[in-house]
Amino acid sequence: MNLESALRYSHTLLDQVVQPGDTVVDATVGNGNDTIYLASAVGKNGRVYGFDVQAAGLAATKTQLVLTGLSLQTSLIHDGHEHLLKHLPENTQISAAIFNLGYLPGSDKSIITHAKTTISAIKQCLQILQRGGLVILVSYYGHPGGKDELRELQTFLHQIPQKQFQVLNYQFINQQNDPPILFAIQKR
Ligand SMILES: C[S@@+](CC[C@H](N)C(=O)[O-])C[C@H]1O[C@@H](n2cnc3c(N)ncnc32)[C@H](O)[C@@H]1O
């Protein structure tokens, strides 16, 4: 057995909570790896809401979803995740949300996630998270601005009330080159 990377572990955790028919959020679609994984996990009776500010990634993701027969259960939204609740039907409950924080490899490195909008979006996800559900953050922070976002995020996560949520930090602490860190917030 090898300990899993933060990215691999994010799917291991999601596997435990996401069921066919669920509604879930991919807050940072990028090239759609998590969107495709989630669309497959929720199946035809579920729904994935995917957000990104970059149209090119959304278009590439749409193509992949169509090719894999997963487009019907997916809504791709070209808007910042900080406007998440505006785009979801009233009274929606989600079993999971995932954020990959940083920039999209192979695209404009100046388009990064930022603490203020990231934290706003996390709070919105926590409002509609069902009991036992998970909000997962995979933080890439090696780029300019990345450590600022990480610092503010850690401060926010430490303050989440433990009676309502438990917060996990999964991190390799002896690796070079700023390996990603996973945080998981579970509603009790
Ligand atoms: C690390 S990448 C995501 C990688 C993606 N999960 C994948 O599988 O390819 C981060 C993404 O967040 C997006 N992003 C930045 N700010 C955003 C915001 N406010 N709302 C939604 N997406 C945002 C970027 O455009 C970028 O595609």
Automatic annotation (TrEMBL):
Please list the GO terms describing molecular function: methyltransferase activity
Which domain of life does this protein belong to? Bacteria
Say yes or no: keyword Methyltransferase present. yes
Transferase listed as a keyword: yes
The protein's matches in SUPFAM superfamilies, at most eight in alphabetical order, are given as:
S-adenosyl-L-methionine-dependent methyltransferases
* UniProt record, GO biological process: methylation
Which keywords belong to this entry? Answer: Methyltransferase, Transferase
Q: Which Pfam families match?
A: rRNA_methylase (PF06962)
Tell me what this protein is called: SAM-dependent methyltransferase
